[in-house]
Amino acid sequence: SQQGEEDPQALSIQEGENATMNCSYKTSINNLQWYRQNSGRGLVHLILIRSNEREKHSGRLRVTLDTSKKSSSLLITASRAADTASYFCATDDDYGQNFVFGPGTRLSVLP
Amino acid sequence: ETGVTQSPTHLIKTRGQQVTLRCSSQSGHNTVSWYQQALGQGPQFIFQYYREEENGRGNFPPRFSGLQFPNYSSELNVNALELDDSALYLCASSPAGNHYGYTFGSGTRLTVV
Q1: Does the distance separating the beta carbons of B106 and A42 come in below 8 Å?
Q2: Alpha-helical regions (H) of chain A
Q3: Rg of chain B taking only CA atoms, in angstroms
Q4: Interface contact flag, B90 A43, Cβ < 8 Å
């Protein structure tokens, strides 16, 4: 089954800076999603981007998708301490039935 | 509109025992997926239920089984617990299919000793 792989594994920035996380995947997809997880809690859905879309925005979040490179990026602008969390990308599996998650990027935003 | 609720929040079991975890899906969602998340790892897909039928399964042994009820709530059962089953178990619901984002519960933290 295919799986997204986030990069970097960990990222530490100062409050106010922008944070960029990348996700690479192996085979063609229908959808790609980004989720946030605060320590030990459930995942929160951030954005879903379809394979025919190239960019989506939601507040301070911007997601891009490059299907030719099989990669996506999540940009968080003007980061806040509350953005400290793990961020996961999820791609649909070989059967298009379920989402498969990568190992995540652990973001720390320092005040 | 309520979100996804899971119970219990924490659980400690002994190796070899059996455990049942419960999940109430968000109103209007007929699809429930279960994930296992080991510490420091991404969630691993266990299986999905759609309209009371299993609709896809990940690489987990048969001692992981599930049910979905007519009200779309779901159970995850694990028999013959092993130490490596210690993890956060997450339930996620969605409208039919995977064309929408999942709504996750807060999870059940299972510790096997």
Answers
A1: yes
A2: none
A3: 13
A4: yes
> Is the Cβ–Cβ distance between B19 and B10 less than 8 Å?
no
The answer to whether A20 and A75 have CB atoms below 8 angstroms apart is yes
Q: Are B15 and B81 in contact (CB under 8 A)?
A: yes
Cβ-defined contact of B48 to A98 (cutoff 8 Å): yes
Give pLDDT tens digits for A51-98: 999 999 999 999 999 999 999 999 999 999 999 999 999 998 766 667
Mutation target vs B (from A6, A21, A38, A43; most B CBs, 10 A cutoff) = A43
Residue closest to A2 by CA, chosen among B40, B100, B58: B58
3-state secondary structure of A90: strand
CA of B75 vs chain A CAs: smallest distance (Å): 17
Q: Residue A85's closest chain B neighbor by CA? A: B40
